[in-house]
Amino acid sequence: MPQTPVADKHATFARCLECNKVGLFAPLHWLALGFKDMASAPILSLFYGVVFSIIPVAILYFVYQSGTHLVILPATVAFALIGPAFAVGLYDIAWELEKQHKPTLSHSLRSMFRNPVGEWGFAVLLMVIMIIWMRLAALVHALYPNSVNPTFDELSAFLTLGSLIGAVMLGSVFAISAFTPQIMMERRVDIMTAVVSSIHAVKENIGAMIVWAFCIVALVALGFLTGATGFIVIMPLLSYASWHGYIAIIKHKGPRGYE
Fold first, then answer.
1. Distance between CA 164 and CA 151 in Å, rounded?
2. CA 44: distance to chain centroid?
3. Is 253 exposed, middle or buried (0-12, 13-18, 19+ CB in 10 A)?
4. Half-sphere exposure (Cβ direction) of 141: Cα atoms closer than 13 Å
5. Which of 48, 185, 243, 244 is the most buried (most CB within 10 A)?
6. Counts of helices then strands in the chain (DSSP H, E)
7. pLDDT per residue over 62-102, tens digit each?
8. Strand partners, 19
């Protein structure tokens, strides 16, 4: 009788990397380490901060030009979707500092091509999710009342469904992207391995990741309240902190000197 093929235990496609469990308030420590990285590389951090601030400025301009507040929610979700794909350069700076190297702009830019198939594939994945979200947002908009000054009761269906869909989308993207770019940049694994590992790590550290999600939401809200100028500091800080979260949670063969 023909033997049933046995799966290769050494196969590298779509495997799940092991993870550590961290304390509930570990994200606050990651933020402290992020501030330390910013102090160690202020010029590069400022450069990337300015680049990142262009995105929310464009969102605010779009809101102003459209003349309606209805685009704020989908625009904010879109910002959350595309942000992780552009943080790779900042991850490289934090990694260089960890190795006690002097980070440079050219090295951080080259990091975007360390795993081009995986990294750009991830960017495409986020773009597809963003397109799906924008289509869903357009459908939800159909529930918006036709009256000039709608009451809360008239808005309830629109707000409930829109908030529910937005929460599901953000939660899914958060789990997918929490550690995926960092894993692909450092380990050069395939996108499925990185995504599966990220989702598993979030699930195993759900308490800490909820705290981390609240930190992100609070800082992003602060950035918009400052007219997007706050993102010059906030985006490098969040990116550096994300790198330290990756080091703390995703297991490595040896100890990492990230303090």
1. 20
2. 20
3. exposed
4. 13
5. 243
6. 11, 0
7. 767 766 665 665 666 566 656 666 688 899 999 999 888 99
8. 250
